[in-house]
Write a structure and sequence with these properties.
By secondary structure, the protein is α/β, with parallel strands linked by helices. The protein has one domain: Rossmann fold (3-Layer(aba) Sandwich), CATH 3.40.50.2020. 32% of the residues lie in helices and 34% in strands. It contains 6 helices and 9 strands. The chain has a 7-stranded mixed beta sheet, with helices on both faces. Strands 1-2 form a two-stranded antiparallel ribbon. Helix 1 packs across helix 3. It is globular.
């Protein structure tokens, strides 16, 4: 299957779930995409391709970002760093509070990398940009550099890209 065909199929596998986790929110369920090997491979290839050779480690944002980051790290032959919700790490080095489209949250990250490590931030969806902005702030606070930000899907109407204020954001799909 050609790459464009595989990506079209991958996008068609993303299920739309209205009113989850709250009334008025439209959730994008990537579980069917993850279950399809060809769709997953094409998606991960497209996710990291613009940053090839420009990052040393992949940081995945909890929770679905972990799944994508693990696959991306293996495919790029680099390490993986989790960015977790508050209270999930045994020894957080830094934390950042941020706003979601339906509440607030905190993310944390360890400081296990060498200063200056180039980090590719990955998440499943770019909505308002708060989670990824917090992830970028964590990475930079800990002395690492952000090589880029990649997401499986960008929800264009929510303006998350503008909130991140930079051109290093790559989205495989748009809704």
């Amino acid at each position: 299957m050609q790459t464009s065909d595989a990506l079209t199929r991958a996008e068609s596998l993303i299920a739309i779930v209205p009113d989850y986790p709250e009334q008025g929110i439209v959730f994008r369920d990537i579980a069917p995409l993850l279950a399809d090997a060809a769709a997953l491979r094409a998606s991960i290839d497209a996710l990291i391709a613009p940053f090839a050779g420009r990052f040393d480690v992949v940081a995945g944002i909890e929770a679905r970002g972990f799944l994508l980051a693990a696959a991306a790290a293996i495919m790029a032959d680099v390490g993986l760093v989790p960015i977790r919700k508050a209270g999930k790490l045994p020894r957080p080095a830094a934390s950042v509070d941020y706003a979601l489209e339906y509440g607030t949250a905190t993310v944390e990250m360890h400081d296990d990398l060498v200063a200056g490590t180039r980090v590719l931030l990955l998440d499943d969806v770019l909505a308002t940009g708060g989670t990824l902005a917090a992830g970028r702030e964590l990475v930079e606070t800990l002395g690492y550099s952000v090589a880029g930000i990649a997401v499986l899907m960008e929800l264009d109407a929510l303006g998350g890209r503008a909130a991140l204020g930079d051109d290093s954001v790559h989205a495989v799909f748009h809704a």
